[in-house]
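mind reviewing these tokens:
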Amino acid sequence: MSSARRESEARRYWIEQMEAAASFMERILDTPSQECGEQLVSLREAVRQSGMEVLFSESPLAGRLDRQFYLREGLIESFLQAAGRIYARGWILKIEDAYRSSAMQRALGRDPGIFNRILNKVVWEQENAAPSPELMFRRLSVLIATRPKLGTHMSGSALDISVVNRDSGLEVDRGGPYLELSERTPMSSPFVSAPARKNRKQISEIMLGCGFVAYPYEFWHYCQGDVFQTILDPHAPAARYAPVNFDPASGRTIEIDDPLASLHSLRELGDMISNALKMLTAE
């Protein structure tokens, strides 16, 4: 296959998957959830008490914020079970991200490194044309989350994971590292190798066996008990976890008043697009 044809097919696939994901997010906005008031629990402490071997990302969120490795109390047993099964497979579970507050979620979408990577991909999608703020908002909704309800990390019910080989210490090949933002990002991407697809499948089967469903459009995102699972699993009960703000110091969990409120305005996105493209041109 020629490089031009491969690029054309990659572009077509990227657009197809991003639009499918956007439709998924539109369904999320209409899917009810009933916050149960369950507290969030430290994953690090749960791992320490269990004696399980689990790794945690050391990189700050958006380059400057401490990650908050918390999950709903009712999911801790499932999490530890998944970690144990992954370990038995000869791997070690690595938690890249867990709970995010409103401020963390907003900062992630405005982080220049992440924003510019997505922008570059959308410019490529548009065959080198600058995207509209509306299109950028649509893509960010899929890959970062532009409203609290779309980011189930804010519900304390989602995990972003990597997996490491116990013997070599190397990351298990899934076709790209955590936060790969390309045509290789969707779970079922045909643009990854057969071994990478096999690893994705085996990891997802382990996670599903412990109650965590895979988000189809990112190969690292798994969740349970939230609106994602309600749509992805026809047998799942109504979502019991809604977006919350959590204070680790006090342990207080407060449901967010307006989970549909936008975290980024179109004007802000327009300015960010313009500034990023100006810097790119200057280089």
About this structure: The chain has one domain: 3-282. Residues 3-29 form the longest helix (27 residues). The mean pLDDT is 95. The radius of gyration is 19 Å.
